[in-house]
């Protein structure tokens, strides 16, 4: 993954969601991150209609171009997004490892393919 930078050096990231509250949550999270971390985030949030988000996401993932850096994937869409031999989602196993004893395994199982956890619902764990 190659992320772009703003003129001030912040990492540009895009986030797609279908829920206004999720968009606001991630905007606030980026602001909180920027207050306490040297590496800043410039987060662009797009709130799309439910069907539009999944249509755009499916096309972007299958074509290899145009997908956001972060996406809010609703559980009912998981099977569609994990089709194929090698889903194009970034595996999160290493990032989640320190928190596995705090997470509900059966919930994570919905987002696994070949033992790789590739999607997770928004989980607030506090500062690392």
Helix-strand blueprint:
Elements: E1 11-17, H1 20-36, E2 41-47, H2 50-63, E3 70-71, H3 78-81, H4 93-96, H5 105-109, E4 112-113, E5 116-117
Parallel strand pairs: 1-2, 1-3
Antiparallel strand pairs: 4-5
Features:
disordered C terminus; 5 strands; 34% helix; 3-stranded parallel beta sheet; 128 residues; alpha/beta; single chain
Describe the fold and architecture.
- With 128 residues, the chain is α/β, with parallel strands linked by helices.
- It is 34% helix and 16% strand.
- It has helices spanning 20-36, 50-63, 78-81, 93-96, 105-109; strands at residues 11-17, 41-47, 70-71, 112-113, 116-117.
- The strands form two sheets. It has a three-stranded parallel beta sheet, covered by helices on one side. It has a two-stranded antiparallel sheet with strand order 4-5.
- Helix 1 links the parallel strand 1 (11-17) and strand 2.
- The longest helix has 17 residues, at 20-36.
- The protein is globular, with a radius of gyration of 15 Å.
- Residues 121-128 have low confidence and may be disordered.
Summarize the structure.
With 128 residues, the protein is α/β, with parallel strands linked by helices.
Percentage of β-strand residues: 15-25%
Percent helix range? 25-40%
- Number of helical stretches of at least 4 residues: 5
What does the main sheet amount to?
Answer: 3 strands, parallel
Give the helix/strand class: alpha/beta
H/E series, N to C?
Answer: EHEHEHHHEE
Unreliable stretches: 121-128
* Average pLDDT score: 81
Beginning-to-end CA distance, first to last residue: 23 Å
Radius of gyration in whole Å, from Cα?
15 Å
User: Reading side by side through the largest sheet, how are the strands ordered?
Assistant: 2-1-3
* Anisotropy-based shape: globular
Write down how many β-strands occur, each being a DSSP E stretch of 2 or more residues: 5
């Amino acid at each position: 993954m190659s992320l772009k930078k703003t003129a001030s050096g912040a990492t540009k990231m895009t986030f797609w969601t279908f829920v206004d509250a999720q968009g606001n949550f991630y905007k606030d999270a980026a602001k909180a991150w920027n207050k306490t971390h040297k590496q800043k985030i410039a987060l662009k949030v797009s709130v799309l209609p439910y069907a539009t988000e999944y249509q755009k996401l499916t096309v972007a993932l299958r074509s290899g171009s145009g997908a956001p850096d972060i996406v809010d994937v609703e559980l009912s869409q998981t099977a569609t997004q994990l089709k194929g031999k090698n889903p194009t989602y970034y595996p999160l196993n290493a990032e989640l490892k320190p928190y596995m004893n705090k997470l509900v395994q059966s919930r994570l199982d919905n987002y696994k393919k070949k033992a790789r956890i590739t999607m997770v619902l928004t989980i607030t764990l506090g500062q690392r």
